[in-house]
Design brief:
Elements lengths: L4 H8 L6 H25 E12 L10 E11 L8 E9 L5 H8 L3 H9 L3 E8 L5 E7 L4 H22 L8 H4 L12 H5 L16 H9 L1 H9 L9 H21 L5
Parallel strand pairs: 3-4
Antiparallel strand pairs: 1-2, 2-3, 4-5
Length: about 270
């Protein structure tokens, strides 16, 4: 089908990007479209694109909510998965789509969290590399016990975060200094000087924030980074260059699939 490319480009550039990043983002969007869109129109009944969802887990004894953005969701209408509910998550990677990278995605909790939030039995990872002209798809069966495990995991994490907030500790554990995360992906954490030389800011927000998958990752890597970037309003972090690039690709794909499936922005 014919898509309005100008609207896709506009979506990609909805937030500022260097020109070369915008060109690369459009290239990856085109690769995903060429690989999957035609078959998706035959197999999918799409019910949501770039859906922002917040789930207050009723079984967790905490006011904490879980939030996320579901790239695409719906139901298979044909083929071996007919009638099954699915979610799709797009990933862009600066390096090759080798077995190590694919395994890191399969072993992450993100797809299980998102599947539990939408009651899906299948999770489709769609992966693209800026280094290689290829895309890959990994279809994951969601285990029947996954949702219960995810709720237990979130409950435990919420309890730990809540305990740190309630303790009024002025500086949280700085695990980044132990696990090397201070210099991850050839970038130095913007709070590195504070943690190694100057006293970190000691103000705390009055309450916890909703947990997203990215904030869970941040907390696991370094609780002090989580405190600084997620709980202190003036220090809110909008991500690194790779995050912004990935968001641009997501915006372009969302526009393309909204056109293809006739779904309006809500």
């Amino acid at each position: 089908m014919n898509l309005d490319t100008s609207l896709i480009v506009k979506a990609i550039n909805a937030a500022p990007l260097p020109e070369y990043d915008a060109s690369d983002a459009l290239l990856l969007v085109d690769r995903f479209i060429e690989a999957y869109l035609e078959q998706d129109r035959k197999d999918f009944a799409v019910t949501g694109i770039e859906q922002r969802v917040t789930i207050p887990w009723s079984s967790i004894e905490s006011p904490l909510e879980t939030r996320g953005v579901i790239d695409m969701e719906g139901v298979f209408t044909s083929g071996q998965y007919e009638g099954r509910r699915f979610i799709v998550d797009y990933k862009t990677h600066r390096g090759p789509l080798d077995s190590r990278y694919v395994r890191s995605q399969v072993e992450s909790l993100q797809w299980q969290i998102y599947a539990a939030m939408r009651d899906a039995s299948l999770a489709l990872y769609r992966l693209a590399s800026r280094e290689q002209p290829v895309v890959k798809q990994v279809i994951l069966e969601v285990p029947p016990w996954s949702a219960a495990n995810i709720q237990e995991f979130l409950a435990a994490t919420a309890g730990i975060v809540g305990s740190l907030v309630s303790s009024e500790a002025l500086v949280w554990p700085r695990f980044g200094l132990l696990n090397g995360y201070c210099h991850k992906w050839n970038e130095t954490c913007r709070y590195y000087r504070d943690c190694t030389g100057q006293p970190p800011p000691k103000s705390l927000t009055a309450s916890q924030a909703a947990l997203s998958y990215s904030s869970l990752q941040t907390f696991a890597r370094c609780p002090e980074l989580y405190r600084r970037s997620r709980l202190l309003p003036k220090d809110q972090d909008d991500g690194n260059d790779d995050t912004r690039f990935g968001q641009a690709v997501h915006r372009g794909l969302a526009e393309a699939y909204r056109q293809a499936f006739g779904i309006e922005v809500k």
